[in-house]
Amino acid sequence: MAHAEKFTKGAIFGIANHIERKTENHSNEDIDISRTKDNYSLLNDNSDLITRLNNRLEEVHVYNRKDVNVMVDWVVTLPNELKGATQEQQREFFSNTHDFLVNRYGGLKNVVSSEIHVDETTPHLHFAFIPVVFDEKRQQERVQANKVIDRAELRVFHDDLHKYLLEKIPGIYQQGILNDKTIPVSNVAEIKKMDKQIKDEIKIKKETLKEVTAYKNPKKEFDKIIDNSSRSILGLVQLSKEDLSKVSEIILGAEKSTVIHTNYRKKTDKEIAGLKRENKAYGLALGKEQAKSNNLWLENHSVNNELDSLKQDKAQQDKNIRMYGYLTNVDIQETLKSLTPVETETLEILDSMRNKTFKSTRPNLIHAKEVFEKLPATSRLYKTTRQVLEKVKNALDQLAQKVQRSKPRL
């Protein structure tokens, strides 16, 4: 089963942290951090999602709007039939799925992430890419997600991937994408049980049908009667009353067996046809329940990713508010654009000094002193920094005195 989700620039930071596991605080309870070390990437360029994304966006045209989707993430789950497969076979499935997606969406230049997560309930692939199309009129590449991932694409995607995997890894993959059984639901077990009962009943009916006959071997019975018979002077076969009665029974039994066989055959054929229809109906019901369950899992996975993203954004915003609280009567967004590198570093240090252990660490104090002394008098932070600088110097002096007192006397 596979599911696609589109992301704007503002949502990239959060989903990148989730995909690349850059935080240990996950809202998704399915994540087992003890197994996170077993996750792996199918990209071997020693880069990360954000870097790849920014580098590629510099090469293509993208509208400067907040609502533009600049990335698509396909989540492809491991089919149930491969749950018991070896790690190598599972890797083969994901590797071939990766190749299919790379070729489908413009090559590796558009791929920003291809990560396999095995630390959740269901192993799955996160394949993130930039949806790029070529504008014939302007003769340039541009980002346009609604043309790359549209309804037509979603209609044929699963079938195309299914056929590709059947061709590439027939020894491993058989039916997973179209008839996926990855996530069990409460009534699936009941449907499977009924399905087995129907198949068993069909088997019993067929076996019973073969056994419906008066004599399993009428010819053998006739041969025995002939052997026991005698001939008259004229060469006619003479039968005893007992043998004659047996012949009569064979003939009547054969006729009766034929009638029973014919009637039973009609009845059984009708029952088998009915059972097959029921079996097909249960199969369709099973497929719908499993598809519904998979969709719920993917939706839950997507919601958890979005929650992680929102938490990351909030943390960054809280930090900005703290940092720029040292500046009065300013617009934070405008200030972000106008700050010099020294002013930015100054604010970072001022925010870090909220930590109680900061002042007790000599390298931190020395670094703060050096940065604060670089700040020009024209900066809006100058007055505040002068006051803090005195405290930093005093803290350094106190540390020096403690060291001096702790030295042994000669």
Task: Please write out the topology.
Blueprint: E1 2-8, H1 9-19, E2 40-41, H2 49-57, E3 69-77, H3 87-104, E4 111-117, E5 124-129, E6 132-135, E7 140-143, H4 145-148, H5 151-168, H6 188-211, H7 218-228, E8 230-231, E9 237-238, H8 241-323, H9 332-338, H10 341-352, H11 362-374, H12 382-406
Antiparallel strand pairs: 1-3, 2-4, 3-5, 4-5, 6-7, 8-9
Helix pairs in contact: 1-8, 3-5, 6-8, 7-8, 10-11, 11-12
What's the quick description here?
With 410 residues, the chain is an alpha+beta fold. It is built from twelve helices and nine strands.
Provide an overview of this structure.
- The structure is a single chain.
- This protein has 410 residues and is an alpha+beta fold.
- It folds into 3 domains: 2-168, BirA Bifunctional Protein, domain 2, CATH 3.30.930.30; 188-304; 332-406, no CATH class.
- 57% of the residues lie in helices and 10% in strands.
- The chain has 12 helices and 9 strands.
- The protein has helices spanning 9-19, 49-57, 87-104, 145-148, 151-168, 188-211, 218-228, 241-323, 332-338, 341-352, 362-374, 382-406; strands at 2-8, 40-41, 69-77, 111-117, 124-129, 132-135, 140-143, 230-231, 237-238.
- The strands form 3 sheets. It has a 5-stranded antiparallel beta sheet, sandwiched between helices.
- Helix 10 (341-352) runs antiparallel to helix 11 (362-374).
- It is elongated.
- The two termini are 77 Å apart.
- The relative contact order is 0.10.
